UniProtKB/TrEMBL annotation:
Domain of life: Eukaryota
GO molecular function, one term: S-adenosylmethionine-dependent methyltransferase activity
Residues passing through the membrane, by range: none
Name used for this protein in its record: Methyltransferase type 11 domain-containing protein
Entry-linked InterPro entries: Methyltransf_11, SAM-dependent_MTases_sf
Species assigned in the record: Trichonephila inaurata madagascariensis
Gene expressing this chain: NCL1_24420
Pfam families associated with the record: Methyltransf_11
Ranges where the Methyltransferase type domain occurs: 2-102
Length: 230
Protein backbone atom coordinates (compact mmCIF):
# COMPACT_ATOMS: atom_id res chain seq x y z
CA UNK A 1 0.00 0.00 0.00
CA UNK A 2 1.26 3.43 -1.01
CA UNK A 3 -0.19 5.83 1.56
CA UNK A 4 -0.65 9.38 0.33
CA UNK A 5 0.27 8.48 -3.23
CA UNK A 6 -0.53 11.93 -4.60
CA UNK A 7 -1.70 12.84 -8.07
CA UNK A 8 1.73 12.30 -9.64
CA UNK A 9 2.00 8.71 -8.34
CA UNK A 10 5.79 8.98 -8.19
CA UNK A 11 6.24 6.37 -5.47
CA UNK A 12 3.55 4.10 -6.94
CA UNK A 13 5.29 4.11 -10.30
CA UNK A 14 8.69 3.45 -8.71
CA UNK A 15 7.30 0.44 -6.81
CA UNK A 16 5.80 -1.07 -9.96
CA UNK A 17 9.04 -0.54 -11.86
CA UNK A 18 11.08 -2.14 -9.07
CA UNK A 19 8.65 -5.01 -8.38
CA UNK A 20 6.75 -5.62 -11.65
CA UNK A 21 5.44 -9.03 -10.51
CA UNK A 22 3.77 -7.91 -7.29
CA UNK A 23 0.27 -9.27 -6.81
CA UNK A 24 -1.48 -6.07 -5.78
CA UNK A 25 -0.57 -2.46 -5.07
CA UNK A 26 -3.12 -0.18 -3.44
CA UNK A 27 -2.48 3.51 -4.08
CA UNK A 28 -4.46 5.55 -1.60
CA UNK A 29 -4.98 9.21 -0.86
CA UNK A 30 -7.56 11.26 0.98
CA UNK A 31 -8.55 13.03 -2.23
CA UNK A 32 -9.60 11.31 -5.49
CA UNK A 33 -6.59 10.76 -7.74
CA UNK A 34 -7.94 8.39 -10.41
CA UNK A 35 -7.95 10.49 -13.59
CA UNK A 36 -8.14 10.09 -17.35
CA UNK A 37 -4.45 10.99 -17.50
CA UNK A 38 -3.61 7.88 -15.48
CA UNK A 39 -5.59 5.66 -17.84
CA UNK A 40 -3.79 7.25 -20.79
CA UNK A 41 -0.46 6.34 -19.21
CA UNK A 42 0.34 3.00 -20.87
CA UNK A 43 2.56 1.81 -18.04
CA UNK A 44 0.03 2.45 -15.27
CA UNK A 45 -3.00 1.51 -17.37
CA UNK A 46 -1.66 -2.00 -17.88
CA UNK A 47 -1.57 -2.60 -14.11
CA UNK A 48 -4.99 -1.00 -13.66
CA UNK A 49 -6.54 -3.27 -16.30
CA UNK A 50 -5.04 -6.33 -14.63
CA UNK A 51 -6.40 -5.07 -11.28
CA UNK A 52 -2.90 -5.17 -9.87
CA UNK A 53 -2.93 -1.41 -9.30
CA UNK A 54 -5.98 -0.30 -7.34
CA UNK A 55 -7.00 3.13 -6.09
CA UNK A 56 -8.72 3.72 -2.76
CA UNK A 57 -9.91 6.87 -1.05
CA UNK A 58 -8.31 6.54 2.39
CA UNK A 59 -7.20 9.11 4.95
CA UNK A 60 -4.50 7.58 7.15
CA UNK A 61 -5.83 9.46 10.19
CA UNK A 62 -9.34 8.08 9.63
CA UNK A 63 -9.22 4.49 8.41
CA UNK A 64 -10.63 2.42 11.26
CA UNK A 65 -12.45 0.07 8.88
CA UNK A 66 -9.20 -1.47 7.67
CA UNK A 67 -7.33 -3.83 9.99
CA UNK A 68 -4.79 -6.59 9.44
CA UNK A 69 -5.17 -6.48 5.64
CA UNK A 70 -1.86 -5.11 4.30
CA UNK A 71 1.50 -6.84 3.94
CA UNK A 72 3.65 -3.78 3.31
CA UNK A 73 3.19 -0.03 3.67
CA UNK A 74 5.16 2.72 1.97
CA UNK A 75 4.54 6.28 3.10
CA UNK A 76 6.70 8.98 1.52
CA UNK A 77 6.51 12.72 2.22
CA UNK A 78 3.06 12.54 3.81
CA UNK A 79 3.65 12.76 7.56
CA UNK A 80 4.89 16.35 7.35
CA UNK A 81 1.31 17.34 6.49
CA UNK A 82 -0.25 15.44 9.40
CA UNK A 83 -0.54 17.06 12.81
CA UNK A 84 -1.37 13.91 14.78
CA UNK A 85 1.51 11.71 13.65
CA UNK A 86 0.99 9.27 16.53
CA UNK A 87 -2.53 8.54 15.28
CA UNK A 88 -1.23 8.01 11.74
CA UNK A 89 1.45 5.59 12.95
CA UNK A 90 -1.12 3.73 15.03
CA UNK A 91 -3.41 3.35 12.04
CA UNK A 92 -0.53 2.03 9.95
CA UNK A 93 0.10 -0.56 12.66
CA UNK A 94 -3.56 -1.60 12.59
CA UNK A 95 -3.55 -1.82 8.78
CA UNK A 96 -0.63 -4.25 8.73
CA UNK A 97 -0.92 -7.97 9.11
CA UNK A 98 1.36 -9.58 11.71
CA UNK A 99 4.82 -9.70 10.16
CA UNK A 100 4.00 -6.75 7.90
CA UNK A 101 6.56 -4.07 7.08
CA UNK A 102 6.32 -0.27 7.03
CA UNK A 103 8.73 2.06 5.26
CA UNK A 104 8.18 5.71 6.18
CA UNK A 105 10.06 8.78 4.98
CA UNK A 106 9.15 12.35 5.82
CA UNK A 107 10.69 15.79 6.27
CA UNK A 108 11.08 17.12 9.78
CA UNK A 109 12.76 20.40 8.80
CA UNK A 110 12.44 22.03 5.39
CA UNK A 111 12.66 25.76 4.58
CA UNK A 112 10.33 25.28 1.60
CA UNK A 113 7.61 24.05 3.94
CA UNK A 114 8.43 26.81 6.42
CA UNK A 115 8.07 29.33 3.60
CA UNK A 116 4.65 27.95 2.69
CA UNK A 117 3.50 28.13 6.31
CA UNK A 118 4.51 31.78 6.57
CA UNK A 119 2.88 32.65 3.27
CA UNK A 120 -0.33 30.95 4.34
CA UNK A 121 -0.39 32.90 7.62
CA UNK A 122 0.61 36.27 6.17
CA UNK A 123 -1.76 39.21 6.18
CA UNK A 124 -1.50 39.57 2.41
CA UNK A 125 -2.38 35.98 1.45
CA UNK A 126 -4.25 34.18 4.25
CA UNK A 127 -7.55 35.59 2.98
CA UNK A 128 -7.19 33.49 -0.19
CA UNK A 129 -7.04 30.14 1.58
CA UNK A 130 -9.39 27.65 -0.13
CA UNK A 131 -8.18 24.32 1.23
CA UNK A 132 -7.88 23.33 4.92
CA UNK A 133 -5.06 20.87 4.24
CA UNK A 134 -2.00 22.00 6.25
CA UNK A 135 1.11 23.15 4.47
CA UNK A 136 3.40 21.67 7.09
CA UNK A 137 2.77 20.17 10.53
CA UNK A 138 5.65 20.67 12.93
CA UNK A 139 7.63 17.54 13.75
CA UNK A 140 9.69 16.58 16.79
CA UNK A 141 13.36 16.87 15.79
CA UNK A 142 14.83 14.70 18.57
CA UNK A 143 16.82 11.86 17.00
CA UNK A 144 15.03 8.96 18.70
CA UNK A 145 11.58 10.43 19.38
CA UNK A 146 9.73 8.68 16.55
CA UNK A 147 11.66 5.43 17.03
CA UNK A 148 10.42 5.24 20.62
CA UNK A 149 6.93 6.30 19.53
CA UNK A 150 6.70 3.43 17.04
CA UNK A 151 7.98 0.98 19.65
CA UNK A 152 5.36 2.18 22.14
CA UNK A 153 2.68 1.51 19.51
CA UNK A 154 3.99 -2.05 19.09
CA UNK A 155 6.34 -1.90 16.13
CA UNK A 156 9.80 -3.41 16.08
CA UNK A 157 11.96 -0.68 14.56
CA UNK A 158 14.80 -2.02 12.44
CA UNK A 159 16.04 1.33 11.18
CA UNK A 160 15.66 4.92 12.30
CA UNK A 161 17.86 7.35 10.42
CA UNK A 162 17.80 11.12 10.45
CA UNK A 163 19.75 12.70 7.64
CA UNK A 164 20.43 16.15 6.27
CA UNK A 165 19.99 16.55 2.54
CA UNK A 166 21.55 19.31 0.44
CA UNK A 167 19.06 20.60 -2.11
CA UNK A 168 18.81 23.50 -4.50
CA UNK A 169 16.68 25.39 -6.96
CA UNK A 170 18.62 26.53 -10.00
CA UNK A 171 16.96 29.94 -10.01
CA UNK A 172 13.88 31.89 -8.97
CA UNK A 173 11.82 30.33 -11.75
CA UNK A 174 12.51 26.76 -10.63
CA UNK A 175 11.50 27.68 -7.08
CA UNK A 176 8.27 29.25 -8.31
CA UNK A 177 7.52 26.19 -10.41
CA UNK A 178 7.80 24.06 -7.28
CA UNK A 179 5.75 26.57 -5.29
CA UNK A 180 2.90 26.12 -7.77
CA UNK A 181 1.70 23.48 -5.29
CA UNK A 182 0.49 26.42 -3.19
CA UNK A 183 -2.20 27.18 -5.73
CA UNK A 184 -4.00 24.05 -4.55
CA UNK A 185 -4.40 25.71 -1.17
CA UNK A 186 -4.46 29.40 -2.10
CA UNK A 187 -6.50 31.02 -4.84
CA UNK A 188 -4.44 34.09 -5.64
CA UNK A 189 -6.17 36.69 -7.84
CA UNK A 190 -4.51 37.11 -11.21
CA UNK A 191 -3.87 40.81 -10.61
CA UNK A 192 -1.89 39.97 -7.45
CA UNK A 193 0.04 37.00 -8.77
CA UNK A 194 3.17 39.01 -9.58
CA UNK A 195 3.28 40.39 -6.03
CA UNK A 196 2.68 36.89 -4.62
CA UNK A 197 5.60 35.47 -6.57
CA UNK A 198 7.95 38.30 -5.64
CA UNK A 199 7.14 38.07 -1.93
CA UNK A 200 7.44 34.27 -1.97
CA UNK A 201 10.89 34.34 -3.55
CA UNK A 202 12.06 37.10 -1.21
CA UNK A 203 10.82 35.23 1.86
CA UNK A 204 12.45 31.95 0.83
CA UNK A 205 15.79 33.67 0.20
CA UNK A 206 15.68 35.20 3.68
CA UNK A 207 14.93 31.81 5.24
CA UNK A 208 17.92 30.13 3.59
CA UNK A 209 20.29 33.08 4.02
CA UNK A 210 20.75 33.46 0.29
CA UNK A 211 24.04 35.11 -0.67
CA UNK A 212 22.66 36.86 -3.73
CA UNK A 213 24.14 34.85 -6.59
CA UNK A 214 23.95 31.36 -8.06
CA UNK A 215 21.47 28.56 -7.27
CA UNK A 216 19.19 28.76 -4.24
CA UNK A 217 20.90 26.15 -2.04
CA UNK A 218 19.29 24.93 1.17
CA UNK A 219 19.33 22.05 3.63
CA UNK A 220 16.42 19.84 4.64
CA UNK A 221 16.28 17.17 7.34
CA UNK A 222 14.33 13.98 6.77
CA UNK A 223 13.64 10.88 8.82
CA UNK A 224 13.61 7.31 7.51
CA UNK A 225 11.80 4.68 9.57
CA UNK A 226 11.67 0.97 8.76
CA UNK A 227 9.51 -1.07 11.10
CA UNK A 228 7.85 -4.48 11.43
CA UNK A 229 4.60 -5.43 13.11
CA UNK A 230 5.43 -8.52 15.21
Amino acid sequence: MDIGCGANLLCTRALLEKFPRMGCLVACDKVPIMTEEILKDEFLAEYVCKEILQFHLIDIVDCLDYRNVVNKIVCRNVLQQITDKELAFGNMYDLLRPGGHAGILFCIVNPVDACQVLINASRNWSQYRINPMPFFAKANIEDVYYKFLLEDIGFRVVRSEKRDVQLQFLNDQSFLKFLAYSTILLKIPEDRMTQFKEESVSLFKRLIGYSGSGPLCYEASELLLLAIKP
